[in-house]
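To: structure desk
From: M.T.
Subject: fold request, one chain
Message: Could you run this one when you get a chance? Sequence is below, nothing fancy, just the single chain.
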Amino acid sequence: MDSSGIQHLNTIRSRWVAYEVAANVLVALAFATLAYSVIGLGWASAVLIVTLLILLAVAKPWAITESKVAALLNIQYPQLQESCGLVLKPKDSLNLLEKLQLAKVERALHDLNGMPKQLTKHLRQAGLFLMLMLAVSFAIAKSGILIQKVKSALSPVPTMAERIPEKVLPQIAKNILIISPPAYTGKPVREQSYFTLNVEEGCSVKWEISTNIAVKQAALVFNEIERISLSANAGHTVFTTQKIITKPGFYQVDIDGKLSDLYQVEVIKDASPVIRIITPKPYTHIEAGEVPQVNITAQLNDDYGISNALLMATVAKGTGEAVKFKEYKIPFNTSFGEHKPKYDLQKLIDMKKLDMEPGDELYFFIQATDTHNQQSRTDAYTVSIQDTAALLSMNGLVSGADFKPEFFRSERQIIIDAEQLLKERDTISLDAFKKRSNNLGIDQKLLRLRYGKFLGEESESNIGEHEGSTLSDPADFNNVNKIMDEYADKHDNSEDAGFFDAKQKDQLKATLTEMWNAELHLRIYKPQEALPFAYKALRLLKDLQQKSRAYVAKTSFKTPPLKMEKRLSGELNKIIGPDLHSTVKPLDNPMINLQNAVSVLEQLKSKAPIGTQQFRTLQLAGQQLSIKASAQPGVYLASVSAMRRILAAPALAQQADIGRVEQAIQQTLHTAKPMPRAVQTQPDMGISQQYYKNLDK
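Reply: Done. Structure tokens follow.
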């Protein structure tokens, strides 16, 4: 190798690597600058390090070789005559012509001025990107708006109880709620100082309420139905109780007969495991010659954790009334002791170990159980093995609806000969093996050509050939032969072949394609790889064999004679309409109280006084809203509180409370369905009656 040429290439390579590293550093600095202007110095340093490592791992500038440099020089400098690679070869391995060309390349490399611009392309782009990020960061720093938004997004999200101060009774000095999540969540015990609850299903909550004066009694009222008394200490200043929360709703604190505001109780339901099977497809067919194995990959997800997962498999053997089933419970090669919320599972099923044979089918699904003993399962997936014995059988060939039995026998014989050749491969010479494989390819070709005649292919050189129309020539006007030739069914055109319908023709074309593939592998002395295509072609032919044309005999039907004197007379006097009497009492509308409450609320908006009956309507509407709030406290709890304030002083009702209650009522009411009614038609001025009268004439 030429030392000066190699030294020149190494110099260019070193500079190229340095430029690429510098470009990555500038890009990382650009992202770090943007992060600094948004979220501060601490996060910017982390962004700089992580971004630089990612860019270096993706770009890999150290992987630039002298060969890549030589290729770049060949592109950039025509005077090198694309021969820069000769510098990298040992001189002893060069012939006379290459040595002469190497001398020219050495002189050209010595005369090169500067470095290729391609080396600094990424560096220049990175510099422009850094300048752009500096301008954006400067604009963000001046505005200062985005910084506060991002910082508030990164900070812990405050709960509703923290954003909106709760109204508590004046006797309460301090309250502590100790929340013990159920064991299936894996969460630790936590405390809070507000009454609003957002807990997991089955969570145990302990209330410790301290009062500033001694009170006689204290209790918790849940959903206006359940009342739980609190245990007091000796001085009647500390009250405690405990309850397991299983459903949503609301509750109040009762101290000596005085009720607090409504406090919301939200329950976080435990979702069932989510299972997603990635492979295989819902229906998998293993062709003959393929390995009877199926690789199952799945992904499990749960909100708290998964405790176990099994593969439930069922093997079906036999056909008809002789079918037998055998079930298997196959565990995955994964330990679920850590109860992770996400698992990636993989299982390779060897069908031979399940005693499966050709023609058998495997049905399987995955069943997962979470830490709350909730189970979920997937749909059943099917894996079948091709039955080669059924394909090679002679059953059904005596039927008169078969297409060409000899073609089926020929394809079957090719498969038998190919399998016999594979068995004798070790006992015969290589030339004999290649010769027999090539002969089988010739037989497959002859069979394909004979079979292609059903699609109108007369020869390989004229498959589907059809000349364009010449009927536009004035000389051929009234030429019957050319007209017949244009529109008649020509069987030398594969698109016009009329032996089969379109669906059967598509299946025949698919069969022809499989024969092409089988012939290809036989001609290149790979009969093992040709067998799957041959088996598939044979299976398509067997499917065609089972399809026969159905003949429906024509049956006679004698209609009763018509009375011509009454035909089109339009007399309907003997047709009596049904007499229907309904004795079913219509059901009361359960939403009538809410509907009536809307009109009462409209009166309150106009400061009009309401009577006793209207006040009762509001009370009934409030009860229905309370029922709704016990199931959906987050939606209806505010409206229930507003309704209570309205009922306490209807004459002093606030417009905000009235609007909140009306909005809740509108959400509750269902849209009424239109009742059926008679359609009003336009009068026809008696034309229809005149028409029926004229029919008798």
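Reply (cont.): The longest strand covers residues 306-317. Let me know if you need anything else for the meeting.
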